[in-house]
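Reply to dn_fold:

You asked what the input looked like. This is it:
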Amino acid sequence: MAELKKTKLAAEHERLSGKMVDFGGWWMPVRYSGTVAEHLRVRSSVGLFDVSHMGEILITGPDALRFTSHLVTNNVARLEIGQALYTCMCYETGGIVDDLLVYRLDDGYFLVVNAANIDKDYEWIIKNAEGDIEITNQSDDYIQIALQGPRSAEILAPLVNVDLESMGFYRFAIGKALGVDALISRTGYTGEDGFEIYARASEREAASLWRGLLEHGKPFGILPVGLGARDTLRLEMGYCLYGNDITKDTTPLEAGLGWVTKLKKGPFIGRDPLLEQKAQGLTRRLAGFTVEGRSAPRHGYGLQVEGETVGAVTSGAFSPSLETSIGLGYISTDALSGGGDLLVDRRGRLFPATRVKLPFYTEGSHH
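and this is what came back:
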């Protein structure tokens, strides 16, 4: 069995008694004080996440814009220097290679990809490379620390030499955080205001940054946050998780990601089948639903309407903010338009579910 990869903050998580687990080949904290407490602290004040397992791939050169535009579904041509966007990369079939962020630097494009997909994504990008470009996998060089919650700007502002007040959502600046050179962005995966610090840092610098943020966050009740709450926070917002809600067998249109799929921008990988799918009409769509009680729907459970299986659960959890169980799943468009009662099939036991419009949680500082 391959040895688990560790971020440069692994020792910090162990020092804080984080419950460590194998997450896609990475040794990561699933929780510290408890998933519900961590989740609610992000919603009410602030939490600190180690997301250094995410991947970073740099595309530079005279043809960087043309190639990056060909690679992803969203319109990177509209990006100004210092701006980011969310997008998908697709296979020629229209299925999703990954969902990712693209940051426009002054000399190219900085792609932030999912941890479990780093090698696959890099190989895909290299395979499709064209023009005068240089592609560099910088994933091992970077740490990424995310400060998330409505109080995050108050904590971070005195610790960085960039103006957070004027930094819009999905914007970033190059500067210093607690004296460490960093790219500081305002994106997030929680539905709350928040910032990410990307730094080519040593273990010592990483630990100093992490400890400094926790120290300065103490008056705000900051908590370190594990993967458990990261998942429940994103699920409350209806945000997709690669490997669950989106895969090579799902398209952005089916997943409700038509808003990052600019079919009119010109050619990109996977565009033709997506145009065809849109013209013919979707046969299924990712939909949200709630189930009463604390017994959460799990990935793979069937979804039924009037005795017929019409889909399957892709993600589910108990929602700490809403105090009910919530789930996502692909449901046939016929069933969605038919109006019959939705049931979750939990190993032969059926539970009533109520379809809801996403996001589940609408009180966040960003949604």
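The domain at 10-52+142-235 is CATH 3.30.1360.120 (Gyrase A; domain 2).
Hope that clears it up.
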